[in-house]
Amino acid sequence: MFKRTLKVAIALSLLSSPLVLADALSDAVNHENRSIKERSRDEYRHPQQTLRFFDVQPDMAVAEISPGGGWYSNILASLLSDKGQFYAAHFYIEEGGNAYYKKSLDGFIQKISQDENHKKTKVTAFHPTKATDFAPANSLDRVLTFRNVHNWYMQTGQEGIDSAFSSFFNALKKGGVLGVVEHKLPENLSDEAQKSSGYMKQSFVITAAEKAGFTLLAHSDVNLNPLDTTDHEKGVWTLPPGLRLGEKDRAKYLTIGESSRMTLKFIKP
Questions:
Q1: Using alpha carbons only, what angle is made at residue 224 by residues 222 and 225, rounded to the nearest 5 degrees?
Q2: Is pTM beyond 0.85 here?
Q3: Distance CA 134, CA 150 (A)
Q4: Per-residue model confidence as pLDDT tens digits over 102-130
Q5: Strands 140-146, 215-220: parallel, antiparallel or unpaired by DSSP?
């Protein structure tokens, strides 16, 4: 009887161990719903290490803010498809609004409609100032956003940043985590670069999160790229996958790879 009880206890401990999460993440990252093109970015974006750092569990309610083409959405939907809930807080479309946003949203919806892992995905709308109720208040375990803070700052300024982080705080449960990955501007460079380069200072993001009520839990170097000087003719879009300069110095920028990024983990106290 004792041995049987011990075996059950060990089995239960394994179910909640990081190893099981690693296996679940590995399955999601290597799922056939991800194209070869998507997988080719893994070496720069480190999805397994990043999601493990944010401690995303398969039974959680998770929102991804501004998922774009759905690079991370495919992984998250697979991870959460059985026991969790995934919110894709995509572009907010106004009547007669931005055609690019509409095309992106339409493409995203078309893409996930063909993927069984997205059968429970809830597509909602997010805008830093015009659409902040992307999920019920106090309902989420995780809010994640990847390479988006610069867009909100460039489009809506400090007001939009404050509103966005407040909306993340509102959507999370007490003890919930906000995970942020963003192009990282060195602290010794001018703040002016944040207005057009696509890079943001880590101190700026931390201050914005703390202003909304969050506490910084940890930061990770997993997405840093020491080859990225961050000083490029077309900002962060000079680097892959954008390669805005076309064939000019293409080999140079391919060698650098994608941008150097901060990876920050905040908690709602």
A1: 130
A2: yes
A3: 20
A4: 999 999 999 999 999 999 999 999 999 99
A5: unpaired
